[in-house]
Amino acid sequence: MIKKINIAYYSTSSDTSGPFNQLVNMALNLDQDRFNIIFILSNNIIHNKTIQRLEASDIKVFSLKSDNFFNFFQLFKLIQVLKVNDIDILHTRLRRCDFYGNIASIFYKCSVINNIVDNQKDHFYKFHKIFSYLLNSLYNFSLRFSKMIIVNNKENLFYYSQLGHNTHFISNGVEMDLFAMSKDNRSIIQKKHSINPIAFNVGFVGGFKQVKGIELLSEIIREFKNIDDINFIICGDGDYKKKEFLKEFLEYKNVYVLGYIKDMNQYYSLFDTQIYTSYSEGMPNTLLESLSCGIPAICCDVHGYTNIVDKRIGFIVNRASKEYAKKILWLKNNPGLSKEISTLSITTMKSEYNFKEISKKLTKLYLSI
Fold it and tell me: Helix (H, G, I), strand (E, B), or coil: what is residue 341?
């Protein structure tokens, strides 16, 4: 009998829906006759549907109860969990976990795989401004103890390969069975929010955050002032320039600010196209979900978008409102061609971004160590 490989997946929180869901779906699609799996979280466990999925598969979840980077006790707790569970491979996701996982491997011998999902060049300067240089230096030092790096964009693949790391590309995945267009959902949501049922709907998901390019979104909407048959539907939380946005577009009859949507998979059925205006994107799960529903994408030239979108399934445009407006009008006026894009989008997601195929690639990497 072949000995099973013991794998621990390590992330910060069960509440970081994007990174944590990606790890969970990877794990659940592995062959559990080959692998024993546990999950480790830095923070306290937040019980949700994703945790319930792990529990239903008899996968244990451990918490280090450490809610920030500088709680160094999490290192000793991590080492203890690794020892008790006789872990062979530690698969980390998010920078804090990369760092502590790499350092833990000095004291407990296991193979650490860092799953890097954001841009190395700006992560620490964007999210840790005060200690950015120190944290960046510590993180880069820890990488020498990593056995392998997995990235989900070609720019990071080039960056870490150039530094001499054993680097591999595996894209993010999407749960295809959760995302599909529904005429019934569209009708129900239109009635709920009093949305014109015959208008062409332009979706924006991401909320009022500086990185999401709210200024460009506003410019795009201004291109359609007093045009009643093209709606803009804004979903997401945040407060960046929200007051100014609401004040300016209060009189517009075609702008709907819906706030944070818990069941976003249902709301995608509202969209006829979706626009993306972010300044940077590490792992655009929203884009993958939307494309899985067959929604044509209009994106600016940002690496997180250009790694996924090509002329078959959407548009890459300059960061200019008129460029977006041209594509919105083209899709509205060419429903047949829009349908072709939609069909190709769904086919591409099924063939290239489903978790079964991603887990097959992961299995090969695990077995190569």
Answer: helix
Cα gap 261→181, rounded to integer Å? 17
Interatomic CA distance for residues 37 and 51, integer angstroms? 14
Count Cβ atoms below 10 Å from residue 348 Cβ, excluding itself: 17
User: Could you give all domains of the chain from N- to C-terminal order, each with its CATH number?
Assistant: 5-173+355-368 (3.40.50.2000), 176-352 (3.40.50.2000)
* pLDDT tens digits, 301-359: 988 898 899 989 999 999 999 999 999 999 999 999 999 999 999 999 999 899 999 99
In three state form, how does the secondary structure of the chain look? CCCCEEEEEEECCCCCHHHHHHHHHHHHCCCCCCEEEEEEECCCCCCCHHHHHHHHCCCEEEECCCCCCCCCHHHHHHHHHHHHCCCCEEEEECHHHHHHHHHHHHHCCCEEEEEECCCCCCHHHHHCCCCHHHHHHHHHHHHHHCCEEEECCHHHHHHHHHCCCCEEECCCCECHHHCCCCHHHHHHHHHHCCCCCCCEEEEEECCCCHHHCHHHHHHHHHCCCCCCCEEEEEECCCCCCHHHHHHHHCCCCCEEEEECCCCHHHHHHHCCEEEECCCCCCCCHHHHHHHHCCCCEEEECCHHHHCCCCCCCEEEECCCHHHHHHHHHHHHHCHHHHHHHHHHHHHHHHHHCEHHHHHHHHHHHHHHC
* Torsion region of 259: left, alpha or beta (phi above 0 gives left; psi -120 to 50 gives alpha): left
- Which residues, including other chains, have CB under 8 Å from residue 220's CB and lie 6 or more apart? 232, 275, 277, 321, 324, 325, 328
Beta bridge pairs of residue 282? none
Q: What tokens were used for 361?
A: 């690639």
- What the block records as the tokens of 196 is 């014109």
pLDDT tens digits for 115-164? 998 766 566 666 666 677 777 788 889 999 999 999 988 888 998 999 99
134/183 Cα distance (integer angstroms): 52
